[in-house]
Amino acid sequence: MNMNDAIIVDGAGQAFGDEVIFQNVSFYVRTGEIFVILGASGCGKSTLLKQMIGLSPPAFGRIMVAGHDVVTEVDSVRRVIGVMFQSGALLGSMTLLENIMLPLMMFTDLPSDARADIARVKLALVGLVDAQHLRPSEISGGMVKRAAIARALALDPPILLLDEPSAGLDPVTGAGLDKLILDLRGALGCTFVVVTHELASVFTIADRCVMLDRSARGMISIGAPESMKRDSNPVVRAFFNRELPTSGGPS
Amino acid sequence: MVYVSTARFEIRNEGNATIVAFAGPLTATSLAPIWARAREAAEKTVGQLTIDTSGATRIDTSGAVLLLTLERDHPDGVVWRGVAEQPKELLARLRPALQDDTRAPQFSARYTGSRTSAWQDFLNRIAFFGQIVLAIIGLRERLRFLRGSDFFRITERAGAQAVPLVVMLGFLIGMILAFQSIIPMRQFGASIYVAALVSLALFRELGPLMAGVILAGRTGSAFAAELGTMVVNEEIAALTTMGIDAETMLVIPRIAAAMMVMPALAVGIDVTGLLGMAVVMIILGIPPLAILDQVRRATDPQDVLLGLFKAVVFGAAIGIIGCRAGLAAGTGSRAVGEAATSAVVGGIVATIVLDGLFAVITYRLGL
Q1: Residue in chain A nearest B91 by alpha carbon
Q2: How far apart are CA B78 and CA B98, in angstroms?
Q3: Sorting pLDDT into bands at 50, 70 and 90, what band is A3?
Q4: Most-buried pick from A71, A248, B335, B365 (CB within 10 A)?
């Protein structure tokens, strides 16, 4: 772990009242890698992502993003990240083009034709340039997710965090999104943190991953996906081999 | 010519070639000062243009878009110089996107075919009314779809929770009417007739009308928002696919509740309005018994009953319009707001139009 890592999570945890969701979660995300946070439903994956983007301060520990503390330097953190929420969270009253132009309008002084050109290119990157004048309600779930990635890319942040990008999508569309993430990493050199529990997606895109478990109230394994298939922890092995755990198991 | 900013460029000539040389970070947040000037300078260049990025410290997608825009706008040909490997890949990847002619507006179905005409919208409203009538006719066979708890919850929200507003508005309207009318009436020594004027106006017109406005604003909008949200969340579609008739389960209880609470609200406006009027008149020296006598002489039960009947009809109209606005909501978060607005506007307009019709009918019937 060093200060040049894109993200450093040091002993992070979350609790609601006396109920500890997870604790002692520590890992680092190297610059330029695709890092996946995975685990069964309810283990705190999305909560950890919210902590990384400064929406929910960690109850324990510390998280640094590009060298900035997510609690004390949240504005600096938000300047270097782009986030895709699980639902897409595009603004329904705007067209896709306007959704992408919004961050450019808020944070740059570029002329309007330049903003439109840049937004169109972002949409082209995710294959949606023909849908630029449609509203989110007029496109499919997969298109909404791709448009949300384009919006996250609007200001070319070096770190992109994606919450369940392939959830609720058919396998072909999900595979398309995986390819898009790999392509974007190749083209833009971004660091990706992806929350998912789609195994196919994990094996396609992940350089490394961390697995959280609710019954363990924390992380139970970290490493490359192939090595986690042979992990000594039966819960991890069961998850990666799609089997019922032989003892214990995710709640 | 050198522009000093975070991102910089200069134009120089080498032989016959014109060179645009960039320096500094070419990123979304640093390009604004040079964007327009770089494009203008490149457009003015005649002959071959060389784009030199050897001084650029970083090129992101926005920087690449600027460079590709210069290339697109310079049909005489562009030579690239000093482009590092990664920006070169980025430029190659983005070039087709920028060269596509994607500027022509591609209007969505919303603006071309799918928008319903005013006539179609009118027919849809009539059809919805017909569906409600059919649902009421077939109610006996679908009684299991009705939920008593829902009906009482809706009635409580539409009626009991509106009482404070009704009391306040009724009292104020009675006071204002009495005060405004007593000023001219006094000049003719006819102050006492203010009681007749205000009580007749309240029983026949203002009671049901004000209750209608309150119901449309509070309850009609709530109906539309509630049902609109259910449409957006596909709850209505789920009910339909389960074979549950949404009109019977959701619309009829709401219309019934609106029809039931409206007479009570109208009576509330009448009573509190009379009280407000009495307060003003007593303050101005008219004895309470004289006011009461004047009210009894000027009005009869028929006026009260006419007002109550109008209130029931207004309630039905507001309920139908509110529910229809909700069920006709589109998709997306904006649809719910539009449905609520449509319910309030439609409810108030329908109340006033129906009131006008009642005025004509009662005049012709001599009521």
Answers
A1: A187
A2: 15
A3: low
A4: B335
Query: Who's near A32: CB < 8 A, 6+ residues apart?
Result: A6, A185, A189, A190, A191
Whether residues B93 and B125 share a domain: the answer is no
What is the per-residue pLDDT for B125? Answer: 84
Answer yes or no: do B140 and B41 share one domain. no
Say if B1 falls within a structural domain. no
Give the integer Cα–Cα distance in Å for A144 and A85.
Answer: 11
Q: Could you read off the pLDDT of B171-230 as tens digits, one per residue?
A: 999 999 999 999 888 888 888 999 999 999 999 999 999 999 999 999 999 999 999 988
Residues of A in contact with B89 (CB under 8 A): 186-187
A118 has a chain B CB within 8 A of its CB: yes
**With contacts defined as CB-CB under 8 Å, which chain A residues touch B110?**
135, 138
- Do B262 and B310 belong together in one domain? yes
User: Does some domain include residue A6?
Assistant: no
- Per the document, the length of chain B is 367
| Cβ under 8 Å to A: B residues 323-342 | 330-335
Task: Give the whole-angstrom CA distance, residue B242 versus residue B144.
Answer: 14
User: In terms of domains, do B159 and B194 share one?
Assistant: yes
C-alpha to C-alpha distance for B66 and B38, rounded to whole angstroms: 9
Closest residue, chain A, to B94 (C-alpha):
A121
CATH value at residue A44: 3.40.50.300
Q: Which residues of A touch B69 (CB under 8 A)?
A: 114, 117
Residue B112 lies in a domain: no
Q: In the sheet where A19-29 sits, what is the strand order?
A: A19-29, A7-16, A60-65, A68-69
Residues B161 and B85 in one domain: no
Question: How far is the C-alpha of B91 from the C-alpha of A187, rounded, in Å?
Answer: 9
Q: What domain range includes position A90?
A: 32-56+70-240
Same domain, B330 and B264: yes
Q: Do B97 and A111 touch (CB under 8 A)?
A: no
Chain B residues whose CB is inside 8 A of the A124 CB are: 94, 96-98, 100, 102
- Number of neighbouring beta carbons within 10 Å of residue B251: 25
Predicted ipTM of the assembly: 0.76
Residue A251 within any structural domain of the chain: no
The verdict on residue B77 lying in a domain is yes
Number of domains in chain B: 2
Pick from B27, B30, B35, B58 the residue to mutate for testing the A interface (most A CBs within 10 Å). B35
Residues of chain B with confidence (pLDDT) below 70: 1-5, 99-116, 241
Contact yes or no for A129 and B102 at CB 8 A: yes
Of the candidates B29, B61, B108, the beta carbon closest to that of A135 is on B108
**Optimal mutation site among B39, B90, B93, interface A, most CBs of chain A within 10 A:** B93
- Same-domain status, B88 and B148: no
Domain that holds residue B20: 8-99
Phi, psi of B208 (to 5 degrees): -65, -35
- A132:B106 CB<8 A: yes
Q: Is B73 on the interface with A (CB under 8 A)?
A: no
Total domains in the fold of chain A: 1
Alpha helix ranges (H) inside chain A: 45-52, 74-79, 96-107, 112-125, 141-152, 171-188, 199-205, 225-228, 234-240
* Residue B109 within a domain: no
Same domain, B291 and B242: yes
